[in-house]
Amino acid sequence: MNTPVRKAPGGPSHVRAEWGRSVEATLSAVPGIRRAKTDGAVIFALTDFLSEEECDMLMATIDAGRRKSTLLTSTNDPNFRTSDSCDLDRWHPLLQPIDEKIAHLLGIPPEHGETIQGQRYAPGQQFRAHNDYFNENEGYWASMAVQGGQRTWTAMIYLNEVEQGGATWFPQAGVRFNPRPGMLVAWNNMNADGSPNQTTLHEGMAVVEGTKYIITKWFRERPWTPTIEP
Hints:
230 residues, alpha+beta, four-stranded antiparallel sheet, 4 helices, globular
């Protein structure tokens, strides 16, 4: 029996490749930043990016506006993503400085960034292994392509300590991060040639004890225009 050939999630792109090079160079120059020791993906971590007060404010905002997390594509696994999410108002006077601070750190214009999403994981909740880039063979790609295109970089920030569990695990890259308040983790979702990097597969591991709060901001190859439809 012939094994079906899986299509690559996307092809090379000069634009995405340039975003990879420019942001990598910008982050590499940040004092105190660490680059993960892996050849599979470009991943950085920076401690104390947000203050305790900023983290507390963000957790309270997430609690006030949280809803069940959703997925772009369907799955037969009801436990694939079980967290709560909250889309943060980027123009709120307390949130806009954080939104723009993340963009400035990566050297990406703020208009390329999607709305920051907050996530809350109670004990037993998780987000199974997934990639942040869009699969260009999926039906949703037509909409994403005209709303800013492919996701290039991801920036994620932990907001609190978790008593047990809740690590972010990149199984193919061999990298794991344990939650640490205020720590930012950023990675390039593309390969050096601008094609989607399947090694960026990552998992929000189940919380065993305590509650985990994070915020995530995704950046597009072009300015994000969510109101445009194909």
